[in-house]
Amino acid sequence: MFLTNIPLFISLFLSFSLPLYSTPYLSPTTLFPNYQKMLQSFKVFPYTSPLVFSTPSDSEPLFVSSLLNSSFLTLDPEQADLFFIPFSSINVSARSLSRLVNALRYDFPFWNRTLGADHFYVSCEGLSFGSDRNVLELKKNSVQISCFPTAPDKFVPHKDITLPPSLAGPYSPMEKAKNHLHLGYVRYGAIKEHSLIKELRADSEFLVDSEPLDQLGFQERIRISKFCLFEYGKGDVSGINDALRHGCVPVVITDRPIQDLPLMDVLRWQEMAVFVGWNKGRAGVKVEELKRVLYRTCGGDDRYGEVRGLGVTAGKHFVWNEQPQPYDAFHMVMYQLWLRRHTIRYARREVA
Ligand SMILES: *[C@@H]1O[C@H](CO)[C@@H](O)[C@H](O)[C@H]1NC(C)=O
Ligand SMILES: *[C@@H]1O[C@H](CO)[C@@H](O)[C@H](O)[C@H]1NC(C)=O
Ligand SMILES: *[C@@H]1O[C@H](CO)[C@@H](O)[C@H](O)[C@H]1NC(C)=O
């Protein structure tokens, strides 16, 4: 899935070159027992913060309100595995963040034990590194939960987590069309206006929406298409959840390595999506080449069916619920936090 600097403008990082797994999970034998352990033992202590949390974006406040109303919460910091630092990620200035971290450092003993490594915060856009010592420590040590996709300079791989994008539409299981009418579908905004989208529009095998569509219309498009195309970084990837759930294999077109995929610690993304490297440095995008990739992935309906099936299985973990349900997006983000709970805590050293 990680693209290296390959001169070919379309380089392929595809499931078909790897052995095909019949599970979308990275470690199916440990995920389920560990999930149960997490439910039983994971505890989060929330600081109260003057930087009140209220944001208009979607999955971010839902995650926070679900957390604050969950049984993961403890008001006893001695029981806590992790500490949650709440602040509104909209309009929060580096200076007020700095003051907040400073207050935690001086008012509580917990920050100093790990310099923030057993702390986490939610910031949809992600924080920048900056030069302030407090913010830098927060950024470098604490776990950041941001929205997908997050700009590469605001995301620290293996430490940070992204929220599965949330699409409000209700989920109504649909029967997959027996015969797909389209090879690929591009939702409005999913790929930015440039030469690639022009070529896709001109190709009768692709269905490209040039206007926003309501949820039902979108789901119908998904139903009759084999692949759903998205552009990482610039396009709108919020439909990727629905594409997975409804069995439209996501094709992610990207010009750089992707290190912030949602649920990356849990799922084998390579098995349920197609990643196509696209180097815009080369003039002219060859849709023919893209099609060859897709036909190879479909090569035989068995193979396509399996890739698709894994996506459908994984898709349930991307669902956000007002009242969290087992194994839904909220719980899977909590699971990823739980995986990060082990940090070395230093005993307080008395300075003579
Ligand atoms: C909080 O959780 C309880 C059940 O644990 C639920 O009945 C209640 O509606 C939830 N409140 C909010 C604001 O989601
Ligand atoms: C953020 O700040 C800008 C200017 O300082 C202001 O116009 C905007 O309303 C603020 N947004 C929120 C959500 O407070
Ligand atoms: C944390 O460490 C700083 C020194 O970096 C110290 O000044 C501060 O008092 C410590 N905080 C607590 C609560 O002991």
From TrEMBL:
This is Exostosin GT47 domain-containing protein. InterPro entries: Exostosin (IPR004263), Exostosin_GT47 (IPR040911). Residues 1-22 form the signal peptide. Coiled coil: none annotated. Residues 41-278 form the Exostosin GT47 domain. Transmembrane segments: none annotated. Keywords: Glycosyltransferase, Golgi apparatus, Signal, Signal-anchor, Transferase, Transmembrane.
